[in-house]
């Protein structure tokens, strides 16, 4: 199979994943965002009453986009765009990994690439730097927080790629236990060391509702899981179908030659 086949299938899987991720983000995440906005507006209202200035409301349109539009069309556009882009990236990565991760078949190696991507890119960064809802976080530290977040993601992904390469080399020696356990433990240890070395961000106000905070963070994890899980299942299935079709074509060609 060509990289083009993987890319097209990845884009299709990403489109489906983006649509499902929108549903997860809307039903699980938006109620907690509304709760966080209510906390922010209540604090702003108390502050404005003390200073005698009018309070700002998120229901008011900003730049022509209302809160209701942000939570529906805007959210759908974002999740679908991210899903398509991510599906394409996973598809290209799966094409590159084909034949380089032991004796795994195309569908299995594709699933492995997607799972490694979810753990190293999404899950690890969520554990170290969990997302915060509105009204949480200082605008003065957004630059340093963003750099630390993406830097940690980059290091985690690079270490994961190294672990997969090591696993493939160990697998050639027919040592399945070493090939599966040693690279995974090595990656986990190195990622843990890097995570501990990076600065910790704790900017949650002491009076912020804990249920709103953790509800938002958990819903973001659900959305990420739906996004990556759908890409894994759909892309692996499409790759398996494409592989079978390629085998049938190859068998027909050989039968004609004979």
UniProtKB/TrEMBL annotation:
Keyword Protein transport appears in the UniProt entry: no
Superkingdom to which the source organism belongs: Bacteria
Entry keyword annotation includes Transmembrane: yes
Membrane spanning stretches: 7-28, 75-98, 110-127, 147-170, 177-198, 218-239
InterPro entries in alphabetical order: CbtA_put
Region (Disordered) location: 47-68
Keywords: Membrane, Transmembrane, Transmembrane helix
Name by which UniProt lists this protein: CbtA family protein
């Amino acid at each position: 199979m060509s990289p083009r086949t993987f890319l097209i299938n990845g884009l299709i899987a990403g489109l489906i994943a983006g649509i499902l991720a929108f549903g997860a983000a809307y039903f699980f995440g938006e109620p907690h965002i509304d709760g966080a906005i209510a906390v922010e507006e209540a604090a702003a209202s108390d502050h404005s009453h003390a200073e005698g200035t009018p309070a700002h409301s998120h229901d008011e349109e900003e730049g022509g986009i209302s809160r209701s539009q942000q939570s529906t069309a805007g959210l759908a556009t974002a999740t679908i765009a991210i899903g398509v882009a991510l599906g394409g990236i996973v598809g290209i990565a799966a094409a590159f990994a084909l034949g380089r991760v032991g004796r795994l078949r195309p569908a299995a190696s594709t699933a492995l690439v997607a799972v490694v991507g979810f753990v190293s890119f999404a899950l690890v960064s969520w554990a170290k730097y969990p997302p915060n809802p509105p009204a949480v976080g200082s605008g003065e530290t957004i630059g340093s927080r963003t750099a630390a977040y993406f830097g940690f993601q980059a290091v985690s992904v690079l270490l994961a790629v190294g672990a997969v390469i090591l696993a493939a080399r160990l697998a050639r020696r027919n040592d399945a236990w070493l090939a599966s356990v040693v690279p995974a433990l090595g990656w986990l240890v190195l990622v843990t060391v890097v995570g501990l070395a990076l600065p910790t961000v704790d900017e949650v106000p002491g009076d912020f509702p804990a249920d709103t905070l953790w509800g938002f963070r958990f819903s973001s994890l659900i959305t990420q899981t739906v996004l990556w899980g759908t890409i894994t299942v759909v892309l692996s299935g499409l790759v398996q179908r494409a592989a079978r079709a390629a085998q049938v074509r190859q068998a027909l060609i050989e039968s004609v030659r004979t």
